[in-house]
Amino acid sequence: MFSCDDKSDFNLYKSIDNEGWKANEKIFFEFDVKDTISPKNLFINIRNNNEYAYSNLYIITELIFPNKTKVVDTLQYEMADKTGQFLGVGFTEIKENKLFYKEKKAFPISGNYIFNVRHAMRKNGEVNPIEFLKGIQDVGFSIEN
């Protein structure tokens, strides 16, 4: 799915297999930047359902610039409140979470950028990542004015 409106410069979702988001599976988004002056807000968009068994989400992101410079971040987001209610928006079992990635970011150079994200979820006391993270239906990336 792809959409643009007055507010969005880029908005794309990618579906996750029904078996779950595989450990070390990177979800890729490519986008072109022409405007190197105006600051933008960058979001990671997550659609989850009731199969998601955790109150938070750990992810590792990578933003690759046209000159091949990379910025890697490890991020944690709350997905549910203290009572276990999911924080996202939605009237059905599917909740949509719009998570800030970068706020008021001006891209330093024009050209083709690549953004990727993978989950970094682990069970308590375990070193290896969860092999198939269930309950995440779609992962998206958006850039807004």
UniProtKB/TrEMBL annotation:
Keywords: Lipoprotein
InterPro entries on file: Motility-assoc_lipoprot_GldH
One family name in Pfam for this protein: GldH_lipo
Superkingdom of origin: Bacteria
UniProt KW Lipoprotein keyword: yes
Protein name (database record): Gliding motility lipoprotein GldH
Protein's organism: Polaribacter atrinae
Organism placement in taxonomy: Bacteria, Pseudomonadati, Bacteroidota, Flavobacteriia, Flavobacteriales
